Amino acid sequence: MTFRNGLNSLLRPEDSVLVLIDHQPYQLANVNSHDPQAVVNNSTALAKTAKAFNVPTILTSVIEARGGKLFKQITDVFPEQEVIDRTWVNTWQDQKVVDLVKATGRKQLIIAGLWTEVCVAMPAIQAAGEGWDVTVITDASGGSSTEAHEVAIQRMIAAGVNMMTWMALASEFQRDWARTEHVDELTDVLISHMGGSGIAYMWEQQLLKTPVENNAG
């Protein structure tokens, strides 16, 4: 196993492509590894982060007619984009998805989806074996049980897949606060999806805009 370390191992938006897999009502109904509301929040934040940094994003569902449409919160981020509806359980065996990923010319493949042990693990392990640099966003994914999610993560790590959370990815993409090109978009994502940190940022902006009263006698 090759260790993932060094500066070049960090993710770069210009080299990344994101695939969001099966964030659908049927799958969400049996997510037990996470609070379902957190999964919706985190997957939406991940989609918005990708858009903020101009990272190509592929949206895919499995048998939409029975499992339901992708979360509206995600498709609203990419309103003009086709959702690829599959029959393959393993997304990486769906040639249309693979061809779209390959067409980007990028090799840092980022995946999130439901469930971790099935629709995330299968494509992540296959793609890693085919030479892709694969990262799974664990908190924008979820399993049918805590055990299923955690065992899937262990299995993917053993296959050479990198694990991150959406905020870690956003930070890695930003890398330097002196890079202001995407700061406004990223700040909007943090305000909407980062809970207390987003609220604290808005409070900070309020304080900066509020004159300090002179209470000196």
Automatic annotation (TrEMBL):
Domain Isochorismatase-like as annotated: residue spans: 16-166
InterPro entries xref list: Hydrolase_YcaC-like (IPR053152), Isochorismatase-like_dom (IPR000868), Isochorismatase-like_sf (IPR036380)
Gene3D superfamilies named among the record's database cross-references: Isochorismatase-like
Transmembrane segments: none
A Pfam family the protein falls into: Isochorismatase
Classification via PANTHER family: HYDROLASE YCAC-RELATED
Protein name: Nicotinamidase-related amidase
Organism annotation: Neorhizobium huautlense
